């Protein structure tokens, strides 16, 4: 056992930020960062937007240059994968057979895209989007002449790809099995406004429809999608964005608790006090949800990385970050603060028709979050209010002339929820 060494399994945003935060906190031991993407840690948000159009160059998606890891004495093992964990011996075994000791192990194994469980899903031209290789494949396919693109899934990834493809001049159809778009992430008011933006841009959006089969041509390329009821849609390219599956195999093999993610406590520790789990793969107790949840977002990954790095350096604290998230489609800036998918009351403020409004979400009379479209000030204020545990009542928000800016400097917490540090979160 090497008590002064940290091994990070997974070199995405959470893993890379853990390594960087450890050095920033003054950790002097050995840090090994292991990830299976050959290019090393990358910045994922541009992959469904600017990367596909060419506005973001491949080198701009690199989180940090190789010189950073060398300068920080962080051993980056890109193109490698941790295959198993031996908790008794405090070692990890790589797929290559190499064994490494650890004092503390951080699991930042991320997620993988769900695949479409229908006949024809393995045809050429049926893609998912997660890493840089996926994005490069999709970028090349979208760079040619106009194509018939079908996006399966009206979540954030699917709709961002749809907006980008439409902006490149392709004929785009979105097929969603749920009766509305973004059902797990947004209120109906905001989700409907997002769908309206797509339809105004010329995207065909089909809600409450199931894909039953895909058919190809003689070369094995996808050409037709069949929906429930027998309707057929011509398709040159199918992008599947129907959610992700957390990578928990490593934790399961090590005998750690797993349930739609690697289960951790409020300090992000697994059943084993020497093993943490963070980022998209971690299922943690959220003070905002009142239960264990997973959050798939850059800010959640970054904040959990900092939380774990502090704990390893002797400064443990519960993870209490305020969830927040953003998306951009057709130049519209959509921002969410808190967990807004299941309020029992909402108040809409601003100009819905003009595309500048916020939906304030309440539960039991307390502000639990806000969704803002082109109202960045509302987003920032809501994050501060949530961190302070205060905010307007729904009755106050309905008053004529109500302006959230009057709460820009919130008073001390008065409503029973402990103040929390301003951090972030995301919808999952």
TrEMBL record:
Q: Which residue intervals make up region (Disordered)?
A: 387-428
Would you say which domain of life the source belongs to? Answer: Bacteria
Q: Which Gene3D superfamilies match?
A: 3.30.390.30, FAD/NAD(P)-binding domain
**Cofactor field:** FAD
Which keywords are on file for this protein?
FAD, Flavoprotein, Oxidoreductase
Q: Where is the Reductase C-terminal domain?
A: 324-407
Q: Which GO terms describe its molecular function?
A: oxidoreductase activity, acting on NAD(P)H
- GO CC term, one of those recorded: cytoplasm
- The signal peptide annotation in the UniProt record is none
Which InterPro entries does this entry report, sorted A to Z? FAD-oxidoreductase/Apoptosis (IPR050446), FAD/NAD-bd_sf (IPR036188), FAD/NAD-binding_dom (IPR023753), FAD/NAD-linked_Rdtase_dimer_sf (IPR016156), Reductase_C (IPR028202)
Give start and end of each FAD/NAD(P)-binding domain.
5-305
One matching Pfam family: Reductase_C
Q: What is this protein called in UniProt?
A: Pyridine nucleotide-disulfide oxidoreductase
